[in-house]
């Protein structure tokens, strides 16, 4: 390594209480060590802001993979290879990996994948071509199986996964209803993403509206939020319906996580609450990405990516904004050069 | 009809608050009308005491099939045909049906089945050969699929369904753990029904005990109770595990039904909370009963039936005792002649 590189990384300084704040995080600057054989030095270009991170920041051993004080904040990034001692990677290539919120990353090549920029632009590898798009793709098409006779509810519909999931359910011909946190996002879901109905769950009558627009019970509840919206919706789950547990964002920053009190409707309706983890599908990512990119290029699918430009230390602010519901699609920090 | 028959039936007089009390029910006496063509007059011999009834007694339209004030209390009975104007049924035959808690029932034959007493004694048609046995049989063998490498937890293990389910899981070779409400019932589960482990959930350390005896995570949680026992157990649900929602008895008499706060473990573990209703299997009851009766006669399966003798007006007391956990297997009121 001829040049010296100074990394800036975001670490956890306090366990957040409720919504995270700026000073729950710190920036650490350190020099990058010389590369070993097979090492690849990557300059981060885009950082994905991931809602599920909040669950890992809890001061509790109740959950796996927790982030402890002074640990690097976990997150997916897209970056450019700027030096490589690994024959499989060359300078200038774009790569994707869960390498943490930092300006530079060193990888041995085992925890990264190449981004084929012919398939989609780099930022899309954190949204529609990344974990959110793949999650929506497999959990819907492989598990929920939407079809023209089905009613689909997407909670957190304007989020990273929801914004893709709703479109895929529409491509399958289903009636698609989304819930989100503002009238502006409702309009966006309908006008830009083709949702049939969008409901602002902050309005008192949201459940009556949901019941009236769904006209029959819900065959699929694609749940990104948990909490009251999912819980109430269980009252109208359909016969042999499925509630796909994609995320529980409404609960991650609560002191006590609350489950769905209406779960006994699952019994009555022979329905199920189904867990899902995308990593079970790793050997099929390529197949999915070819389809997702095809739909993108044919303008059948948008990959909503909410870019915010700034330095790495802008991360805490965007993470806070994510929990305030400010994003349209996947929140991504684009690092300034 | 040459004789006059005076029916005694149990109706709901008050919506119970918490545990039901004797005066939440009343006895009504009335003369049976003359039979019409196709009618069958049945003298009740055995009344099944069903925990799920408590959910239907809530003063709320939130649940289907509710029992309202002055309605006949619902329940399955086994009775003897004492007069028949229906060519398909003859005097002296034993029949099974959900005909309500009353001394005599009139049926047109469509809501009853004949009990083949060569297969099992009449009282078993309310336990192992009835809805509890059929529920255990199909929900385990068709949905949960126990096998020798699996850990199975049965909550409410000494109840009507649990006491059969545990034995069927043992027949399939699984390691079977049960939870119940007393040390005496724990002993019974192990000594009489062959459970590998039984845990009194009223002991403070029940969850530590469960974690230690299960040695690996739980592949199947067969849940009859809901509440804290099911909720805590979710923390050790296994990869792609199943929680079969058979009942939620701990919640039926609560003011507010509570769901499982640890539900997000289903996500992490790709597990599911699966609703089940036995009526979907009606066309396969015969097949199941042949197997259940075979196991019974080969002494591979017990059909625990907790008989209490008395008049029909003993029903409220036994129903209260059911919710106090006094039963070993299916609680059945045997009517005095």
Structural class of chain A: alpha/beta
Number of strands of chain A: 15
Largest interface: A-B, 35 and 35 residues
- The shape of chain A is globular
Going by CATH, the homologous superfamily of the largest domain in chain A would be: Medium-chain alcohol dehydrogenases, catalytic domain
Q: Helical amount among residues of chain A, as a percent range?
A: 10-25%
Q: If you consult CATH, what is the topology of the largest domain in chain A?
A: Quinone Oxidoreductase, Chain A, domain 1
User: What would you say the CATH architecture of the largest domain in chain A is?
Assistant: Alpha-Beta Complex
H/E series of chain A: EEEHEEEEHEHEHEHEHEHHEHEHE
Question: In percent, how much strand structure appears in the residues of chain A?
Answer: 25-35%
- What would you report as the Rg of chain A, rounded to the nearest angstrom? 20 Å
Largest sheet of chain A: 7 strands, mixed
